[in-house]
Design brief:
The protein is mainly alpha-helical. The protein folds into two domains: about 5-190 and about 285-315, Rossmann fold (3-Layer(aba) Sandwich), CATH 3.40.50.620; about 200-280, Tyrosyl-Transfer RNA Synthetase, CATH 1.10.240.10. The chain has helices spanning about 20-35, 45-50, 55-70, 90-100, 105-110, 110-120, 125-140, 155-170, 210-220, 230-235, 245-250, 255-285, 285-315, and strands spanning about 10-15, 40-45, 80-85, 145, 180. Strands 1-2-3 form a three-stranded parallel β-sheet. It has a two-stranded parallel sheet with strand order 4-5. Helix 4 (about 90-100) crosses helix 7 (about 125-140). The structure holds adenosine monophosphate and tryptophan. Adenosine monophosphate (AMP) binds near residues 22 and 198.
């Protein structure tokens, strides 16, 4: 297949801190697995991060770190266009246009907003409007598929609704319908307490943890007191080993939680070590990484400009 006939894959992660193993299995691994098949665009959602990270040094460091993480997990910069969201500010213009055709009650139904509200958090306008910026990210690049974890499914539906509404209101067919790409077996990766793994629940295992961190976190996986299979340990272990192997192992060590946790820690460490080593190598040359981001933004700018001209024309701006 030639470059131009490939379908567009797009996805992004917020630069809010170190990625964890659920980010990897739920999303990043799919980016790597699909990089030959699609014209892939993977970005660092720094504008989205600004809804929570409001510290100059932290945000810019997180952004560089995530670019390095992407490379370390195996995204090939020759195949994938890795870029920084804020390098293409046209996306905020498109989000504004989407704001104007979207109602407040509609956005109030977003899980992200409802969760924040349920927790009595102070909700900034950026957080409320988060799904519109995400819709703009997806639609501005003419994306065909968007690999994400299940927690982002509703945001994808919002992006699709928004494409449909824009096309209807302005009587055009500019936007195509993006499809979510969610792998069932890792749609919701559990954390060390058995709930969905999430930075905000502090139940996560960072992807580039040290061996010591892994051991400590694995030992703190919550297990019920009865004998038998420690479900939370098993469910994380499933990410690293096939179930046939695990069923045998867990049967052999029935009731021996410590031995099973040791086995899990060993498997996680074996998985993480080469990634960590690669990350250390890449991190030695941050300038090269920044240069890559800058060049990719320049390349994408032309496509995005073309799209925005069509949008402005359709709207009458
Ligand atoms: P975030 O850290 O919220 O920017 O998430 C980055 C990507 O990881 C998104 O595609 C999420 O859907 C995915 N993700 C985050 N947490 C999980 C989880 N516990 N299970 C599966 N995927 C996840
Ligand atoms: N909201 C996504 C998350 O928290 C990050 C994101 C922003 C994204 N824009 C996107 C993901 C566009 C896919 C496509 O994980």
């Amino acid at each position: 297949m030639t470059e131009t006939s490939k379908k567009v894959l797009l996805s992004g992660i917020q630069s809010t801190g170190r990625p964890h193993i659920a980010n990897y299995f739920g999303a990043m691994k799919q980016y790597v697995d699909l990089q030959d098949q699609y014209d892939s665009k993977i970005f660092i959602a720094d504008l989205h991060s600004l809804t929570t990270v409001q510290n100059k040094e932290e945000l810019s460091q997180n952004t560089l770190d995530l670019a390095i993480d992407y490379l370390a997990v195996g995204l090939d910069p020759k195949k994938v266009t890795i870029f920084k969201q804020s390098d293409l500010p046209e996306v905020t213009e498109l989000a504004w246009i989407f704001n104007c055709i979207t109602t407040v009650p509609y956005l109030m139904r977003a899980h992200s907003f409802k969760d924040a509200e349920a927790k009595n958090k102070e909700i900034n306008v950026g957080l409320f409007d988060y799904p519109m910026l995400m819709a703009a990210d997806i639609l501005i690049h003419n994306s065909d598929i968007v690999p994400v974890g299940k927690d982002q499914k509703q945001h994808l539906e919002i992006a699709r609704d928004t494409a449909e509404k824009f096309n209807r209101v302005f009587n055009t067919d500019i936007f195509k319908m993006p499809e979510p790409y969610i792998v069932d077996s890792v749609a919701i990766v559990p954390g060390i307490d058995g709930q969905k793994m999430s930075k905000s629940y502090n139940n996560h295992i960072p992807l580039f943890s040290t061996d010591e961190e892994v051991k400590k976190l694995v030992m703190s996986i919550v297990t019920d007191s009865g004998a038998g299979i420690p479900v939370n340990v098993y469910n994380i272990h499933k990410l690293f080993r096939d179930e046939k192997y695990l069923d045998k192992l867990y049967k052999e060590h029935e009731g021996k939680y410590k031995a099973l946790k040791d086995a899990l820690a060993e498997d996680i460490i074996a998985f993480i070590s080469p990634l960590r080593a690669r990350r250390e190598e890449i991190a030695k040359d941050p300038e090269a990484v920044r240069e890559m981001l800058k060049n990719n933004a320049k390349k994408l700018k032309l496509e995005v400009d073309e799209m925005m001209q069509k949008v402005r024309e359709a709207v009458g701006l």
